[in-house]
């Protein structure tokens, strides 16, 4: 599953909060783009963003936004449930 595209070119900082109910198991990822006609590429957080039945949420924090757009992807491996993602952002010194 792939989220809607979020334009972030004018943002300085942002966070995405993933929360889930049920027993979904899988991996979430964030992809970025540097221009409308450019390819999407995955962002590397140093470890997979795992969704499992043990935890119930995950916070992804961006201290800078050096791209024009982002989108969230989720690949399920088992289980079932509901996953919500909310992005919060601000412009510093705007």
Q: Give a quick account of the main beta sheet: strands, pairing sense, barrel closure.
A: 5 strands, antiparallel
- Give the N-to-C terminal Cα separation: 34 Å
Question: Could you report the average pLDDT, rounded to the nearest whole number?
Answer: 91
User: What is the radius of gyration computed over CA atoms, rounded to a whole number of angstroms?
Assistant: 14 Å
Encode the helix/strand succession as letters: EEEEEEEE
Tertiary shape:
globular
Structural class: mainly beta
Low-confidence stretches: none
Helix content: under 10%
Helical stretch tally: 0
List how many beta strands DSSP finds. Answer: 8
Notes on the structure:
- The chain has 94 residues and is mainly β.
- Helices cover 0% and strands 55% of the residues.
- It is built from no helices and 8 strands.
- The protein has strands at residues 6-7, 13-22, 25-33, 41-42, 49-51, 57-62, 69-78, 81-90.
- Strands 1, 3, 4, 5 and 7 form a 5-stranded antiparallel beta sheet that branches. Strands 6-2-8 form a 3-stranded antiparallel beta sheet, with no helix packed on it.
- A hairpin with a 7-residue loop joins strand 3 and strand 4 (41-42).
- The radius of gyration is 14 Å and the shape is globular.
- The mean pLDDT is 91.
């Amino acid at each position: 599953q792939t989220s809607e595209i979020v334009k972030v070119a004018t943002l300085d900082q942002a966070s995405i909060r993933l929360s889930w109910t049920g027993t979904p198991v899988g991996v979430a990822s964030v992809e970025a783009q540097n221009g409308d006609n450019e390819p999407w590429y995955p962002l590397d957080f140093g470890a997979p963003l795992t969704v499992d039945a043990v935890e119930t949420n995950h916070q992804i924090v961006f201290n800078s936004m050096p791209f024009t757009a982002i989108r969230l992807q989720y690949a399920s491996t088992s289980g079932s449930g509901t996953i919500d993602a909310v992005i919060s952002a601000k412009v510093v010194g705007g």
